[in-house]
User: Which sequence fits this backbone?
């Protein structure tokens, strides 16, 4: 199985109000940021939105 399939199987504990993005996307970008040596929430955010800026 592929990683997105596993991530999609994780139940989302957030309320419907707080769901701007699908949980599997948030987890995937977090994993990619950590693999890119992000060591703080700010660096994870910067890596996650970098292509948009």
Assistant:
């Amino acid at each position: 199985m592929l990683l997105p399939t596993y991530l999609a199987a994780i139940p989302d504990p957030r309320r419907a109000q707080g769901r701007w993005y699908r949980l599997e996307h948030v987890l995937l970008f977090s994993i990619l940021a950590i693999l890119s040596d992000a060591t703080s929430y700010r660096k994870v955010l910067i890596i996650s939105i970098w292509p948009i800026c």
Remarks:
- The first helix runs from residue 3 to 8.
- The CA atoms of residues 30 and 44 lie 6 Å apart.
- The chain has a mean pLDDT of 82.
